[in-house]
Structures are given as structure tokens and as C-alpha cells.
From TrEMBL:
It comes from the Eukaryota. This is Glycosyltransferase family 92 protein. The keyword Amino-acid biosynthesis does not apply. It is an enzyme of class 2 (transferase). GO terms for cellular component: cytoplasm; membrane. It is a single-pass membrane protein. It comes from Phrynocephalus forsythii.
């Protein structure tokens, strides 16, 4: 037994793995060497066990991103100011007409443009992709330091982002950044509206109630299913009608608190065209309705694109497109009908109309003659899918051809205040084109006023019943 045990030690002692021989004099040294040789293996084993324990105790990736890699500060405000940058984000849209882009509609201080980055939250790979943006400042700035811009970023491959953040740095954490939903991810060819009117900003405590109602009803008569209104402020008499049009589904009211971000009082008077961000509003409205509406109409609330040869926009646009199949942008020449000159009209109003503040457009049929030495401003009906950037009177970037519609086909009826020193009243031309629609307009305006009456006086559970009964006796 002892001999066998001795042989075992001899065999182990002679094993080259342990690096020593079985010599009685050197045995303590051999044991010491064995300890030094085994120690690294024990250290590695200890480190592996510690790492396994540490990672087991950490939250899993699934816990960090439960369903969406961006469950953080998603903002729905109309305007968002970026920190550390004179940049204001309005909204973001996918634009895959040429490349797979995210286009962010924005307002920038073009004299102090900084680098910007798009932070994409990739839904599939659950990662954050940071792409340097191209800042495409619109060429028409109307002499102001602030102007419309597109912040454009290529979308990463295999990302399918639902949200994007815009930041002046490529470093940081996404939890600190406001995130914007990327709209238009589904390019639908089935439109919910044939015509959508995009009104530039209403501002200055707008109180021209009667003309507002007449314009809204004319848009409906001519074929609009939706009117998008960006509202800075309005008068108290205007409020119930805004609510009525929103309730019936005609108006989409979008708050536009631009005065909270930019002090326009310091700008000089020639900036009226861009005042309150008109250009930015129109660009947002085009992208907002790119796949919701076949056509988008761009004008002010005191303007109407008025067909001369046709009775509505649908037949007019069909005729224009049949003759110009490659065209997607149509310009209509402005014709000014001053507030200051009245026509004697009997039966073109009602007693209710006189209770409202504002202008009766049926009384204004005298227009300013075209001045050949001046370029009359124009407004537009566009195929929104043909527009990349628009200004107030022109499309800055787009696809296909443009057309200036002859005035014997349609005009832009603009019933506005007029400077008599430029054109005395005696030089005005009688043009009763608006009277073609007087019967339907009077009926529609009276109907809206009756709705307002019933909303005001029958606020009860029976309100819907009362309105239905009233509609029978219209």
C-alpha cells in the first residue's frame, strides 16, 4: 500500500506538467512552484464567475426597451425650440420620392446656422443611429434673419424609425432630447379629400367675421372638403365659428404660437409677407396633406381662387390637367377688390349678416386694373406630391411643370384694403364675377348662422335633435 502510494507520488513528481522531479530535498520548492503555476487558473476562474454574476444581476435589454426603443419625450407641440440653437422645429415627415429621407420642417436663424444631427430610433434593431443633417434654407427670406428651412437626413438602412430627434451635437443621450413622430410613412394613393385649403396665418386679433364665413362657405361650394387654419390669435366674435367649422369637420385648427418664440415687432414693415411664419406654415401644410388630399389650395383667408369658365374646382382642374398632363403646380393671378368701394346690392345679404363685424364680399365688385409694369402676385393650387419647398407666391423646388392659368379661366379674388393713392376709385373696373355664386353663398352663410344660433341657445342633451329638426326646415 505504501509502495503503491509512493509510486503515485513518483509519477506525479515526474510529470512534466508540474515542472519538478520527486526529490526529497527539493520537495518544498516543488510545492511552491505548483502553487504559483495553479494560481493563474484560479484567478481566471474567479473573474469568470464574477462576470457571470454581475451580468446576471443587470437589467436585460428587453427591460430597457420594453416595446419601442424611444418611449421618452415625444412632443406634439406645433413649434418646439431646440436648446443651444436658434432653431425651431415644426414637424417631421418621411420623403421617399427620390431617396429615403426624413425632412424636418423648421425655422432657423440663417445667419447663425449650426451643425445639426438627426437621432433616429431604429425600431427593428433597437439602436440609436446618428446622422449629420443637411440644412436646406429656403431662398426667399423677405429680409428677415429668420426663415423657413428643411433639415434633411438620410434614414439609416434597416432602421424603420418612427421618431427622430434633432440635436446640435452627435453626443449625449436620447432621453434628454425631444422626439418627433415621423409622419407620412405610408404613401397612400387613396385620398380623404379632393381639395384641402391651406390658409396662411391668422393674426392681429382677426375680427373680420363675415368675410371669414363667406370665404369658408365659398371654399365648400367650390369643392373643398378640408380647410387647415394656423391660428395665432383671433377675436371673441370669431371663436364660435372656428369651433363650429371644426365640429362639422371642415376646419382643422392648428395653434401657431410663433409670437412666443420670435419677436416680430422689431422687424420692418416690408416683412409682412413672411410675418408670423407664413412660409413655414404653408410648407408644413403641404407635407401634412401630401397623402391626404389630391390637391392643396394655398391662399389667405381674404382670398378665393374663383373659376370663371367652370362652376367648381374639380371641373376646372380636370380641364387644366387634360390639357397639361405634366403639370402639377398652377398659379392664379391676383385681382384686388378694395373694401373701400361698394356696389348697391339689394337682396345680397340678410338681417343676420348686419349683426356680424366684417366685410360682405358681395358688395365689392370693383377691381384694381392690372398694371403692366408690375408683376401681380399669384397664389396656387398644387399637387402636393409635386412640391418640395414652397414660398407664399411661388414654388421654390418641385417636380414637373408649372402653369400660369389665364384670367379668363380663373382669378384670385382678393377682397382687401387698398391704397387709394395708388389707384383712385375712378379707375376701378366693374367685375361682378363673384355674383355667379351669390344664391348658393347666401344660402350657405345663412345656414351657418342658424347653426351658430342653435349651438348658442340649445346647449342641452337635446341639442342634436334640435339641429336635426332645424335642418328639415332649412
Amino acid at each position: 500500500m505504501y509502495g503503491g502510494q509512493k509510486r503515485m507520488h513518483e509519477n506525479v513528481g515526474n510529470n512534466p506538467l508540474f515542472g519538478c522531479k520527486n526529490r526529497s530535498r527539493t520537495m518544498p520548492r516543488c510545492r511552491k512552484r505548483n502553487v504559483f503555476v495553479i494560481s493563474p487558473f484560479l484567478l481566471v476562474l474567479f473573474v469568470l464567475c464574477f462576470e457571470l454574476y454581475y451580468w446576471t444581476m443587470q437589467p436585460s435589454t428587453q427591460a430597457k426597451w420594453p416595446t419601442d426603443p424611444c418611449p421618452h419625450k415625444v412632443v406634439n407641440d406645433t413649434i418646439t425650440a431646440l436648446k443651444y440653437s436658434k432653431t425651431f422645429i415644426i414637424s417631421s415627415y418621411q420623403d421617399n420620392r427620390e431617396q429615403n429621407l426624413t425632412r424636418v420642417v423648421a425655422i432657423v436663424d440663417y445667419k447663425n446656422v449650426q451643425d445639426l444631427y438627426c437621432w433616429f430610433c431604429c425600431s427593428r434593431s433597437r439602436r440609436i443611429a446618428i446622422i449629420r443633417a443637411v440644412i436646406d434654407i429656403h431662398t426667399e427670406r423677405f429680409g428677415l434673419p429668420f426663415g423657413s428651412a428643411d433639415i434633411v437626413c438620410m434614414e439609416p438602412q434597416y432602421c424603420s424609425p418612427k421618431y427622430v430627434s434633432v440635436h446640435s451635437s452627435s453626443k449625449g443621450t436620447i432621453e434628454e432630447l425631444p422626439q418627433f413622430e415621423i409622419k407620412n410613412r405610408v404613401a397612400s394613393t387613396s385620398f380623404s379629400a379632393e381639395f384641402t385649403v391651406c390658409l396662411s396665418v391668422t393674426f392681429g386679433n382677426h375680427s373680420n367675421v363675415l368675410q371669414f364665413i363667406q370665404s369658408m362657405e365659398m371654399y365648400k361650394i367650390l369643392g373643398a372638403q378640408k380647410v387647415v387654419i394656423y391660428v395665432t390669435d383671433y377675436s371673441q366674435p370669431m371663436e364660435p365659428f372656428l369651433k363650429l367649422y371644426a365640429a362639422e369637420g371642415t376646419a382643422e385648427i392648428i395653434p401657431w404660437p410663433i409670437v412666443s418664440y420670435i419677436n416680430f415687432s422689431s422687424f420692418w414693415s416690408s416683412s409682412q409677407d413672411w410675418l408670423y411664419g407664413k412660409s413655414a406654415v404653408l410648407n408644413d401644410c403641404i407635407y401634412r396633406n401630401m397623402y391626404r388630399s389630391r390637391y392643396v389650395v394655398l391662399n389667405d383667408i381674404d382670398e378665393i381662387i374663383l373659376p370663371i369658365k367652370h362652376l367648381n374646382w374639380k371641373t376646372m382642374m380636370k380641364s387644366l390637367e387634360d390639357q397639361n398632363p405634366e403639370t402639377g403646380i398652377y398659379f392664379f393671378e391676383s385681382h384686388f377688390f378694395p373694401h373701400s368701394v361698394f356696389a348697391s346690392v339689394d337682396g345680397f345679404s340678410s338681417a343676420l349678416w348686419k349683426t356680424l363685424p366684417g366685410v360682405n364680399i358681395l358688395q365689392h365688385i370693383y377691381r384694381v386694373p392690372n398694371r403692366m409694369w408690375l408683376n401681380n402676385p399669384r397664389k396656387m393650387i398644387v399637387n402636393p406630391r409635386k412640391v418640395v419647398q414652397t414660398s407664399i407666391h411661388s414654388v421654390l423646388k418641385g417636380y414637373g411643370r408649372t402653369m400660369e392659368v389665364p384670367k379668363d379661366v380663373a382669378i384670385l379674388y382678393a377682397c382687401k384694403a387698398h391704397n387709394r393713392r395708388e389707384t383712385p376709385d375712378g379707375y376701378l373696373i366693374r367685375d361682378p364675377a363673384i355674383w355667379r355664386f351669390n344664391a348658393s353663398l347666401i344660402s350657405s352663410v345663412n345656414d351657418m348662422l342658424s347653426k351658430k344660433f342653435f349651438y348658442k341657445h340649445f346647449k342641452s342633451p337635446w341639442n342634436a335633435l334640435v339641429k336635426n329638426i332645424a335642418s328639415i326646415f332649412k
